[in-house]
Amino acid sequence: MQLWTSIVIVIGAVLLFIALFFLGGIKVALEYERLVVFRLGKYKRTTGPGLVFVMPVLESFKKVDLRIITQDIPRQEVMTRDNIPVLANTVVYFKVERPEDAVIKIENYIYAVRQYTQAALRDTIGTMELDQVLTERDQIALDIREIVDKETNEWGIDIKGIKIQELELPAEMKRAFAMQAEAEREKRAIIIKSEGERIAAAKFAEAAKELGKTPGGLHLRTLQTIRDIAQDPSEKIIIFMPNELQNLTSSIIKKRSK
After folding, report:
1. What is the pTM of this model?
2. Beta-carbon contacts of residue 109 (< 8 Å; ≥ 6 apart)
């Protein structure tokens, strides 16, 4: 009886060990995760999502996230073709398309993408002058994306986009651009003022022409102007009147006296 009891205990222990052994190999991969499984050090399969069995001891795995990863590239100083330093801050968006390549072919694909982006940023801006860098920011981002995507495609990485968040100029360049902008505003103001004066002169000339067609029109306009000025009692006005205006004034006075 004791023998059977011992046998049952041993069998139970073995079954419990086997159950724990297999339960330990059950893994759960989320919808956006994949498991790259290795058996005795060799690549075996890529599996997931859901319940995944990885044989303990014989197999190991690396979990890979398939969601888009956002990496902020640290601000760095880059030199333009015309030797002007610019501080650039960029962001790269990428995702893993082939998990097995991202694990097997590169040690740290996130770090590698970040380094490639920094190098591509320096190379791209280094071939452009400052004016191009400031006005063609979107094109620079597209060029960097093309370079990085080509280099990282072998690792199973897809570069979704690169954005240049900030381009900061040295303080002396900021002052120079501010002075240039102020000069441009003054130039536009002078042009607008000159154009207004030209239009006003043309209108005055047109009005004088119309007054000239009416006998005594200009003289009447002169008298009206004198009357407007004379409304202020503090003003003293001395006017040298031409003979035509004197004759016109005399004729008007005579008509009123009659």
Report:
1. 0.62
2. 96, 102, 152, 155, 157
